[in-house]
């Protein structure tokens, strides 16, 4: 089992920045990759960004490339998502997902990001 707790969501103006953090605990040695997804009302959950647990490789959806950055904080055992130049369409609940080497996945409870004047 892997437990994930997201934090850092909130209300920000368009063009602003926010950093989300996902703290992992439990069987973290079995984690292969960590990802961020988001879901807005009436829409399916969509992929945002992913990093291997070692931090060697990262992947981004085209909609956030150049604006968002995913990274590992090895001292805190977290995966952070730095979000810049935020747009109203970035408004969503953001979820952290852990993917184990066994292909099992675990999800956090989510944190709300609202981009509005």
How would you characterize this protein structure?
The protein is an all-beta fold. 0% of the residues lie in helices and 56% in strands. The chain contains no helices and eleven strands. The protein has strands at 2-7, 10-12, 18-26, 31-39, 46-52, 58-60, 68-73, 78-83, 92-100, 105-107, 111-115. The strands form two sheets. Strands 2, 4, 5, 6, 9, 10 and 11 form a seven-stranded mixed beta sheet that branches. It has a four-stranded antiparallel beta sheet with strand order 1-3-8-7, with no helix packed on it. It is globular, with a radius of gyration of 13 Å. It starts with a strand and ends with a strand. The relative contact order is 0.32. The mean pLDDT is 96.
Order of helices and strands: EEEEEEEEEEE
Percent range for helical residues? under 10%
Unreliable residue runs: none
| Count of helical regions | 0
Largest β sheet strand count, sense and barrel closure: 7 strands, mixed
């Amino acid at each position: 089992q892997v437990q994930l707790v997201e934090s850092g969501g909130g209300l920000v103006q368009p063009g602003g920045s926010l950093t989300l953090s996902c703290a992992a605990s439990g069987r973290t040695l079995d984690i292969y990759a960590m990802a961020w997804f988001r879901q807005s009302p009436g829409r399916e959950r969509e992929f945002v960004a992913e990093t291997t647990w070692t931090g060697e490789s990262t992947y981004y959806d085209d909609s956030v490339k150049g604006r968002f950055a995913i990274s590992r904080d090895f001292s805190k055992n977290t995966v952070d998502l730095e979000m810049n130049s935020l747009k109203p369409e970035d408004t969503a609940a953001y979820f952290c997902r852990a993917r184990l080497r066994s292909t099992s996945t675990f999800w956090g409870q989510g944190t709300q990001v609202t981009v509005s004047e």
